[in-house]
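Quick one:
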Amino acid sequence: MAQALIFDSGVGGLSVAAEIRSRLPDLAMTYAADDAFRPYGNKSEAQLKARLPRLLWELSEAVRADIAVIACNTASTTALSEIRALLDIPVIGVVPAIKPAAAISKTKTIAVLGTPGTVQRQYVDGLIEDFASDCHVLLQGSVNLVDMAEAKLEGRPVDMKAVKAELAPLFSGRRGADIDAVVLACTHFPLLRDELKASVTQSVQWIDSGEAIAKRAEDVVSRLTTLKGKNYGPDTALLLAPAVSPERQKTFANFGFKRVVPLMPA
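Output:
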């Protein structure tokens, strides 16, 4: 089986890794978390384009990856083409699931909940124009929800009042009561699905890209004709940080990454 590099700024990509593992249980995976530069949502486009292509090339070469999955909406909507240009392996990006949300919405009012760095990108504007031109689309950016997801996976309680405060601008506005589909446009946010559901009273479908990315990974892996390496050890998480707390190590172990290796920030 092949070796996949799963990349995100933090633990959010674990929501994608779990979907991939359920579909490709024999796929070897190395997860890389750019803790040193997190959160991406408040970084400029120039900062991300200057950092990500070279970093992904170095990581993919180090682990001899056969495919790379950029399990981060902000990174994908900002620097995916630059990353693909530098790597010589298939690169799968994650983009907001606006198309399926628009298709299932009965009220034709949908929301895109992501980081500020995602919802402000022209790429998202293009998706809306292409697939949701018949919908009212509300955009909401949140960095705080990223921090809450990181804390939740380390075993700390989620402040439900804080979650409700993050969602309030969406659902209290003039069209808020009409929203019947919310795109989780950050891979951290599916990790808070239960808390998000509990924070609103109206019927809403919460849609993310995890399953679609897993299907895409399955298709790409099935088409590989050569592999860079065949002797794979245990699935490993590489954290771009000088140290790893026991709580964070347990988080990755719970998702199948038994070995967690801290790396000095790049």
